[in-house]
Specification:
Blueprint lengths: L13 E4 L18 H10 L1 E4 L5 H18 L7 E3 L6 E5 L1 H4 L1 H7 L2 H11 L3 E11 L7 E4 L1 H9 L6 E7 L10 E3 L6 E4 L9 H4 L10 H10 L5 E2 L7 E5 L4 E3 L8 E10 L46
Antiparallel strand pairs: 1-9, 2-11, 3-4, 4-5, 5-13, 6-12, 7-11, 7-13, 8-10, 8-12
Length: about 325
């Protein structure tokens, strides 16, 4: 397969023009919940924040499930449980859509899947899932990066035909380390220098050092955006959909307010993972699903109706 997006093959950074559509449909009239204005905003910026897609009651159920998942993994030492650098605090737990019936059903919720299908112009499947927790006062930063660069080089995702979905479970403020995004950055691909070592994921999930853009490239992307950097702030229950190549990162959380979310990556069923373009071995299944792939059948249900869900204890 031709590598449309080479990266980590030399000593220099290159800025390449995107080779794929942003919205994979014959027209902006593709059936789905997003309006023409929504689609145009996603096309232009590379992300869309849907305020309060889930109700307060539904957020309560989801937060309880998240807390339980975090507690179950607090003392577990495994590659799919990421701890904060320098501490034993849980930062992320991966593959929750396979290890939890609740999160599996949540990943199949029609409110999420229908948006992914509309943007990607096909049926979709989950290629990665996780829950993230950034505690108050000590939640660490994550440097600027494009997810697609890693998914392409290390996982073999052929094209930019995936969308990330972040369900915001705690109010996101400017000061508790929200996701920052560079509008329009998805239209360009930053080919990064370096060479990917085997098992790079063991370090990159805690602190990414390969596949990150240099300062000049970041400054150029921000200049293209008119000097603008956006933050994904909003109330709990909101959902951020962002294009797989959108440049994003987050600052540390020095506030007393924690920030947590549930994260699903929807990939087009027509964009299944191939051999990694780095030539290295594929990353583990919990990072890049390859087994038993089938299209998601969307579920029309409220979060409270998922078997086993329970309200948070106050």
């Amino acid at each position: 397969m031709v590598d449309l997006y080479p990266s980590r093959i030399g000593d220099n950074t290159k800025i390449l023009k995107r080779q794929d559509p942003v919205i994979f449909s014959s027209s902006n009239e593709q059936k789905g919940p997003l309006t023409k204005e929504d689609l145009q905003s996603y096309e232009d910026n590379g992300y869309l924040l849907c305020k309060q897609l889930f109700s307060e009651d539904e957020v309560t159920f989801m937060k309880e499930e998240l807390s339980q998942m975090m507690e179950e993994n607090r003392n577990r030492q495994a590659d799919d449980v990421i701890k904060e650098p320098g501490s034993n605090d849980v930062r992320s737990v991966f593959e929750v859509h396979k290890n939890s019936e609740f999160f599996k059903r949540l990943s199949e919720n029609e409110r999420l899947v229908s948006v992914a299908q509309q943007l990607l112009g096909s049926s979709v499947y989950i290629t990665q899932s996780r829950i993230n927790f950034k505690p108050g006062f000590k939640g660490k930063e994550f440097y600027w990066h494009s997810d697609f660069e890693t998914w392409h080089v290390e996982d073999g995702m052929p094209n930019m035909r995936a969308v990330s979905c972040s369900i915001i479970l705690t109010d996101n403020y400017e000061y508790n380390g929200p996701l920052m995004l560079i509008p329009g950055s998805h239209k360009w691909y930053i080919s990064c220098p370096g060479k990917t070592p085997e098992n790079n994921f063991k370090n990159s999930l805690k602190k990414q050092e390969l596949g990150v853009p240099d300062h000049d490239s970041l400054e150029w992307l921000v200049d293209q955006a008119g000097g603008q950097i956006d933050t994904a702030t909003g109330p709990a229950g909101s959902v951020l959909f962002f294009e797989c190549n959108t440049m994003h990162g987050s600052a540390g959380n020095m506030s007393p307010f924690p920030r947590s979310n549930v994260f699903f990556v929807y990939n087009s069923i027509e964009n299944k993972l191939q051999a990694p373009f780095s030539g290295s071995s594929p990353r583990p299944e919990f990072l890049a699903n390859r087994q038993n792939i089938s299209p998601i059948i969307p579920r029309k249900e409220t979060i409270e109706s998922i078997p086993g869900s329970k309200p948070s204890v106050v």
